[in-house]
Amino acid sequence: MLITLCALTIFVCNIARVIICASQKLKNKQPNSFIKTFVSAIVFCMLAYTMHYMVNISPGLWSPFGCWNVLSKQNYGDTYSFTIFDDLPVELKCDQEVYEKLIIDEFVQYTISFKLATLFGKNYGILYSIDTDDIIDNREVMKSALEEITQPGIVYSQLDWSISNCGQTINGSWGISGYDINIIPAWGITKGDPSVIVAVVDTGVDASCDVLQGSLLGNGYDFYNGDDTIYDDYLYDYHGTYIATTIALVAPGIKIMPVKFMESSVGAIEDAVEATRYAIEHGAKIVNMSWNFEEYSKELYELIKGHPEVLFVNAAGNRNINLEEEKLYPCSYGLENIITVMAMDNIGSIYEASGYGVSYVDIAAPGVDVKVIFPENDETTVSGTSVAAAFVSAAAALIIFENDALTPVDAKDIIMSSAVKLDKLKNLCRAGGFLDITACLEHMK
Predict the structure, then answer these.
(1) How far, in Å, CA of 286 to CA of 284, rounded?
(2) How far is CA 151 from CA 100, 257, 400, in A?
(3) Exposure of 22 by Cβ count < 10 A (0-12 exposed, 13-18 middle, 19+ buried)?
(4) Is the Cα dihedral 168, 170, 173, 179 positive or negative?
(5) Pairing mode, if any, of strands 88-93 and 79-84?
(6) Number of Cβ atoms within 10 Å of the Cβ of 85
(7) Is residue 265 a contact partner of residue 237, using CB atoms and an 8 Å limit?
(8) Residue 202's beta-bridge partner residues?
(9) In 127-228, which residue ranges form alpha helices assigned H by DSSP?
(10) Is 282 exposed, middle or buried (0-12, 13-18, 19+ CB in 10 A)?
(11) Mutual orientation of helices 408-417 and 385-402 as an angle, nearest 10°?
(12) Given phi > 0 = left and psi -120 to 50 = alpha, else beta, which region is 8?
């Protein structure tokens, strides 16, 4: 703090010196002396900034109007251990990796206190900014932030931008704060209930993933291999796994039924029909379909149409096509109990490969560089409409639990009418915006 004040004092003094000298030198018609004075002042300002930078606790942007800091150098190697929600142990380690990633730019500065940005690695690291005029205990700031956003019982080492977009960078691109699914406040209302079953009709699912513990039903089936083994191989079954873990992360109270009909990206439409039928017959209220076929199937069409009590959540495809002009199924069936989802990035722009079209695509959801969980608890990022659809399936599950009298069409209408409207999406999907789960639940009050 003292160094900052010294640097600021030097800066102000030299600005004053320039002004005074300018008036004197120009009045006396000595322009060369004025230039020397000006250069001297600039040098002194640079020295002041350098002194501040070397000694101050932050590498962040500094200006005479304020100093914003991230985890301080003096915290390197420190570990804070504490418990939140009475039973969730948290360990926060200020390591070099966390420190170097948490640099605040003018674009994401916040005016008071701290702001959560992201959690790194298996140890929690938290980005926050503090006004150096305030004396804030680091541990208490971190604890308060974790109490606000951490969901008990979920093993997930990074709250992705899709969950909490605070404007953090994703692969070098700044996000826009609030452009996420807005689930954190919703968890204060509901986290779902086991009475609601979401079927993941997809590849197999690795039941050993931490986030799936207590969420998976044991009555799944594998139509690809013709047996009841829902997981065979990492490479074959990663897709269904990250769809299921995404749904479980957002709606941890519901149940997930894995029904396998493909491996990797290979599957037959006949098996898709049988897998969907199985899901319906075994009580699924929502069927997640993060896949498409170019081939029209009358059998699949009739199956979906014949079960208006079930909501089918479909991905809009990753072929960068206008579904007004080219068809993909099931999304191009145009049935009321299908909700089709396109993918957007962390500033609300459409994912470059996403399908779109206001006649067949209903809403957008995060789908660019989204953090997901693969088999064996591997964490990575993916892009595509598949994960976007998973977010909508989770949202529908929370909505249906809150009011089980709702029909799938009712739930779909709530999701669409509660969307955050964006001009850049209004001609790409019916809702003209992206998923907001808290708004969905508040809409029902």
Answers:
(1) 5
(2) 26, 23, 21
(3) middle
(4) negative
(5) antiparallel
(6) 12
(7) no
(8) 260
(9) 138-149, 184-187
(10) middle
(11) 110
(12) alpha
260 and 202 Cβ atoms separated by less than 8 Å: yes
| Inter-residue contact 308 to 407 (CB < 8 Å) | yes
Integer CA distances (angstroms), 211 to 158, 194, 195, 247, 432, in order: 13, 15, 19, 10, 32
| Cα–Cα dist 138/318, whole Å | 44
Q: Token match 């251990």: residue?
A: 81
d(CA 282, CA 259): 11
* pTM listed for this prediction: 0.69
Q: Outline where 89-168 has alpha helix (H).
A: 96-101, 138-149
Q: What is the pLDDT along the chain (445 residues), one digit of tens a residue?
A: 444 455 556 666 666 665 666 555 555 545 555 565 556 666 666 655 555 444 333 332 222 222 223 333 344 455 544 443 344 444 444 444 333 333 332 222 222 222 233 332 222 333 333 232 332 334 444 444 444 444 433 333 345 889 888 777 787 788 888 899 998 889 889 999 999 999 999 999 999 999 999 999 988 999 999 999 999 999 999 999 999 999 999 999 999 999 999 998 899 999 999 999 999 999 999 999 999 999 999 999 999 999 999 999 999 999 999 999 999 999 999 999 999 999 999 999 999 999 999 999 999 999 999 999 999 999 999 999 999 999 999 999 999 998 888 999 999 999 999 999 999 999 999 999 999 999 999 988 7
Q: Which two tokens stand for residue 335?
A: 């049935």
- Rounded Cα–Cα distance for residues 154 and 223 (Å): 30
Question: Strand locations in 103-239, DSSP E?
Answer: 169-170, 173-174, 197-202, 221-222
* Sheet strands (E) in 117-254: 169-170, 173-174, 197-202, 221-222
Nearest residue to 130 via CA among 157, 110, 156, 154: 110
**CA dihedral in degrees (94, 97, 98, 101; nearest 10)?**
150
- Both tokens of residue 289? 């379909």
Cα 347 to Cα 369: distance, rounded to the nearest angstrom: 12
Q: Are 184 and 152 in contact (CB under 8 A)?
A: no
CA distance 399 to 401: 5
What b/e readout covers 355-364, taking b as 16+ CB neighbours within 10 angstroms? Answer: bbbbebbbbb
Tell me the two tokens of residue 419: 């969307």
Token pair listed for 402: 């809150």
